[in-house]
Structure formats: structure tokens, C-alpha cells
Amino acid sequence: KAGVTQTPRYLIKTRGQQVTLSCSPISGHRSVSWYQQTPGQGLQFLFEYFSETQRNKGNFPGRFSGRQFSNSRSEMNVSTLELGDSALYLCASSLSQTNEKLFFGSGTQLSVL
Amino acid sequence: AQSVSQHNHHVILSEAASLELGCNYSYGGTVNLFWYVQYPGQHLQLLLKYFSGDPLVKGIKGFEAEFIKSKFSFNLRKPSVQWSDTAEYFCAVKMVDQGGKLIFGQGTELSVKP
């Protein structure tokens, strides 16, 4: 069974640009959540999707948005990039919203110059 | 705002030493508690979890954690660490009454010297 797949693995952007990250969950998993990981900050929750609906949202500005498709794949978009957005963005999937075990992808390393 | 705090940023131990990593959270409602581990070059993976019942839970690789409700704590322990336990450890708390949002601590980097 394939794991959680995130693409691209690395991204370099400049300030003001926008970026879209993709996450394909484990087959059969319907819940997808996104986290931002930075040194010293740990993982900060961005949002969670289940059945194409955003179920939870963290404390990030509106420049961060996401969506989930009918096949459970999810995308995350960041507009008007800032230097501080440089981070590892992790996607995690689980069977359902109440299933507690998260399976993480390798992440997308975003560098904003 | 709800938060999860891990007291130690970096812990260095020799093999066979005992380990205890602290985790405290600030939320008075019902919680589910987790420890995740990230070995070098690998994905984050679940180490152990607590939902209800016996507050002492056992996980993989000899790890255990104890939930102390009165102290809002969920400390991770291992009696004797090995070099292969070198990794970053994350405590996470799911606030069940708040729509199930999962909040992670800042992480503790454990280095075990052979």
C-alpha cells in the first residue's frame, strides 16, 4: 500500500508569488490534514479536510487555503508569499475524521527568497 | 489559546540511560494524547496514544507514557535508551470538544551517544 505522497518535494519561490502543494492520501483514507513545520516551532496545524469539507482550521492568515477533491486528494495554496512562509509543509491522512492514527508524508520543503 | 509545551528542546543521553520527556498542555476539556517520533530521514510516525482508561500506556520499542490529568501532563518514558532512539519526539493533543483539532508541541530532539 503506497504511503502519503506529497509533491513537489522541494520548491523555491520569491516573495509575492503564490504556490500550490499537493497531497495524495493513503488509498481509502478520507481525512487529510496539513501542518507547517519550522525549527523551534514544531508542527503548527493549518487545516483538516474530510469528505471535501474543511472541518478544522488553525491560526494562519487567509493567504493559506486548501481544498479536498472527491478522490480525497488535497491541495494547499499560499498566496502572496512572505519570507516567513519558508518551512516544511507536511500532509497527514487518516481513515476518518475520528480515527486517531495519522500517517505523514515526507513533506514539501518551501523556500521563499 | 490552547497550547502544548515540551520542556526540553534537546536532550543528550548515553546508551542505557533512562529517558523522560515532558509534555504539558493547556486545555481543560476532554483530550486524546499522542507521542509521535521522527527518526532521521523518515516520516513522522505514531509512538503511542491515550484515549481513556489506564493512564499508563505502552507504545512501540519499549516506550511508555503516563497521563496525569491533574497536572495536564503526558510525559514519555523509556527505562533504557538505545542509540537507535536518536530522533525528534513530538507530543500532540487532540481537543475532542473543539472539533478534534490536533495540536503539536515544539518537539524534543533526542541524541543518544553510543
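Chain B touches chain A at residues 1, 6, 9, 32, 34, 36, 43-46, 49, 51, 90, 92, 94, 99-107 (CB under 8 Å).
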